[in-house]
């Protein structure tokens, strides 16, 4: 019997797949994430043995778990693209047309460059109908309502990859039958494509009729569209490309995080290369935190924002709401390569407070109060830290735009002695920005909980940049 399991990794919106045949007992995993226990558990649930591990391409947004999974299950082979690939670790090369027999079904590799030069798509077909695939596992080439961006390898390769993507979409995917199911490598929220749809799967027929990337049969207009529509490249993507090409370190278990009492935590925090990351909610952080800490809340999107804001070689000191959260927080961090932990605050902020150690606060301004200050306080600068496309779609009148991801290395153009209130869509990224600003010596910074969402819900006015359209 054929078995398929889809694993959605929230925060990075990554989709990986386990496929197997219970009669032969063989299974394959496509694009495993870093913490790989989930695939072993799913295989065990169905009585399967993972024998094949496939990589569609060299990933940029998360650390691949292929090497860790291969070691964990003991007898699996890793299969890597043999077309224009830059893998520097052992694996069996796969080229266009290679086929793999699992009993009741076959997987066939198709070279689908564009997002990357080496990218593969895997067709799945019943063994009795090998020439009629019923689904494709598209990796980052074709998404629901979108397609893989061709600009992640730098301007020097963007034009060439955009042309390759055009031929992949129009010369391969659009020639498939309408009934073929599309299983992509990412869902909504990933920066690997522009405006990826909410659904986790689609069909070629539906995408043919609705996907804007499939509506530009002219190469020139397609290339112009696909490049101009791309969101900013996240800072950590080129770093993780190198990690995944070289071969990520094998992680047979989550790294140990030492429990540090407050005095030891404070001492280690002063060591070079150490960063204090407070994973509590923005309101808890605002009420009192370790001086110099950055607030990256322990929600699923922590994976992406830790990747954006933290260096891979930094040693991380964690503040958690509860020690029960530690395992979950650690998984969110290792998925984007952060495995160097200096420790966590044993007993949490309560122990820090009881120990009489210094506290900092971050004022939280409700949108109603922000509206009052906007009218009465001419010295307050309202700072919109959302992405450029969000800013262009509408923002608080009189606010200034400064994307939080651009604050990572330096904060240019802002007076450290001025008064600021930061906002984003919900307050999550605004708290990252505000805490980062305070750690860099800005004297008067506040955060806006609820942020743009709360501002709109309250019925307050908005504006758009001149010439922008909603």
TrEMBL record:
Transmembrane ranges? none
Entry GO MF terms: hydrolase activity
UniProt cross-references to SMART domains, sorted A to Z: Lactamase_B, RHOD
- Entry-linked Pfam families: Lactamase_B, Rhodanese
- Stored InterPro entries: Metallo-B-lactamas, Mito_Persulfide_Diox, POD-like_MBL-fold, Rhodanese-like_dom, Rhodanese-like_dom_sf, RibonucZ/Hydroxyglut_hydro, Thiosulphate_STrfase_CS
EC top class named in words: hydrolase
Task: Supply the EC number(s).
Answer: 3.-.-.-
Record keywords, A-Z: Hydrolase, Metal-binding
Per UniProt, residues of the Rhodanese domain are 270-361, 376-464
Query: What domain of life does the UniProt record list for this protein's source?
Result: Bacteria
Protein name (database record): Polyketide biosynthesis zinc-dependent hydrolase BaeB
Specify the taxonomic lineage.
Bacteria, Pseudomonadati, Planctomycetota, Planctomycetia, Pirellulales
* Gene that specifies this protein: baeB_1
